[in-house]
# Entry
Amino acid sequence: MKGKEFAQHFEELGFSTNDAAVYAALLKVGQSTAGPLITETNLHRNVVYTSLAHLIVKKLVNEKTVKGKKFFSLSSPDVLNEQFAKKVEVAKEVADYIKSNLNSEAQEISIHQGNEEYGNLLISLLKALPKGGEQFVLGTGGEEFMENTMKVIWKKYHDVAHERKITVRMLGYELQRKAMEAALVKEGIYETRYLPSDTENPAGIHIYPELGIVLNIIYSDDKNPVTAIKIKDQKLTKGYLNLFHNLWKVAKK
# Structure
């Protein structure tokens, strides 16, 4: 490696051009006073002394006085390794801190429309849950949603749910009990209660506490496809889960 190339590499480590030039000159001439370094670098004496001061602070250059003259020499190059190993460690700590804060604060939203996208989304969330995990469903769709969407994805969805040993706590509406109960009991993964309502809600909420994810489901009908809005937000998930538990207490088995 030539002197010029060495100086460029030194700059890449974050040192100034002048500091790199002075360090490279000292490497070439060996222990010396400032004079030979000024000659070698062709820099003003004040610039050379300033760079030497920087390098001494960084413990890359040693200074000693002999008979009233200051002599400079290079420290062990291991100092460079130690300093940059420490910087890597600090950078990792900073990066981990940033990641942890991004994960806890950043909200992610995506929209999924149509039976295929909806089915794939539900199955991907089942697979993301730990085995034996739990899903909460707040509100269920009516006959049109069951006919247009759920019957289409039912088997594939429940095959994965059974394989993953997922349990589902579901809050439905009393007027849907007769239409839903037999199919839910047959699957054996549902614990269902019913809210006293004479009207069906056009939307429902799926809650995945272990993933920090909420789905807002706009049910399909004969004219419109199902739409799921996926929101990844820990605070929102906890809020919906609290709402679910409060409604669960007043719902009927």
